[in-house]
Amino acid sequence: MIASRLKKITSLWVVIVLLLFVISIILGILMRLNQGDVIQLSPVTFYTDMTVHGLTMISIWYVAGMAAVNFIMERYVTTSKPANIIALVFTLIGVLMLWASTFIGKFHAGWTFLYPLPFKEMLKAWATPLFLFSIAVLGVGWLIWCVSLIAGMLKKYSLAQVFAWQYFRKGPKTETPPFILISMITLVGIVTCLLAAVILLVLLFAEYFSKGAFVNDALLIKNLTYFFGHTIANEMLYLGLAVIYELFAEISGKPKWKTTWYVALAWNCTLFFILTAFFHHLYMDFVQPEGLQILGQLASYLASLPAAGVTVFSIVVAIYRTKINWTLANLLFFIGVMGWVVGGLGAVIDATISNNFVLHNTLWVPAHFHTYNAMGNVLFSLGFFYWFSFQFSNKMDDNKLSALKLFFLVFGGIGFLAAFYIGGADSIPRRYSNYPDEFPLAKTLAIIGGSFATIYLIGILLFFVNISKRCVKILFSRSS
Ligand code: HEM
Question: Is 387 in the pocket of ligand 1 (CB under 6 A)?
Answer without folding.
Answer: no
